[in-house]
């Protein structure tokens, strides 16, 4: 199961990002665990400056905006 | 070039709604329709064009660029980049930490963060179309100066003493490391990608600010139509020195972004509020807001937070007084 973290200080964009990933994962039947990370110290640890950012299995894959649907789809199908 | 919006408002207000041009209500409705249609049209065009130009500029590049600069020019550059770099205010904390852990002095980082809410393409566009280029230029110069001097001041009182301990540690480490990991190299962005970015940006910003325009212009229209002529001038004119600090204090609990407050500024000035008082009110509303200061608590101790807050209030007040004093030369 993929561990997906959405980094961000809790603004609407971050919530939307987490919701989008959750929804698309359900639609395509992929099992994921989406969590939101709001601790600035942890966010700094990933070297992220623009939120929302997405971390999949400890790999930073995206930062600075709500990701596009097809982007999310690629992450979900990649092994 | 803007006449078309006046004609549109004439047509809608007088022909369709059947309001009389002489009535207070007709006046207010006309003002509202003209400004909203004009602002919406300009916003869409301008955000797109600006986004197209700055598609490859991001906070990561700015950090890499600033981390090698000496302090003298650093504040000005920090403030300047704050004006032109796009970033969502909810990213302030990660940006602060990103800059800090790259060893950039707190003052330069704060120059960036202080200027950022004050100046952006939407604010400049609104100022240009509503208040003219002179006022716009003035606004930009003042905004950059507040950021530059504010940052300089914070470093000169050694503000880094009052960071939260983990942030202070990150700063110390960053300054030792001497920036070896320049994360990305700037690459030329193809036009198609720029267009994609600009399209997203336009949609995103417009969907965020359109309601602010309605609220701002609505308030402006109400002031325009219903506050008696000369009332503001009589009670809040430049004779009353206290009206500037009062405007600054009033602006704190009112939280708005530049988009919402500029249409209000327009009608305040038309109604005779002195230019300095108006500027002070506007800057305080935009840059000094409690929700954002509470967020900064995560990286700063109360003392630093209070210092920054006071610094802003004092500088806006001084800006207001200076402009009231010199407004006759504008």
From TrEMBL, chain A:
Residues 3-76 form the Thioredoxin-like fold domain. It holds the Pfam family Thioredoxin_3. Gene3D superfamilies: Glutaredoxin. It comes from the Bacteria. PANTHER family: THIOREDOXIN (PTHR36450). This is Thioredoxin family protein.
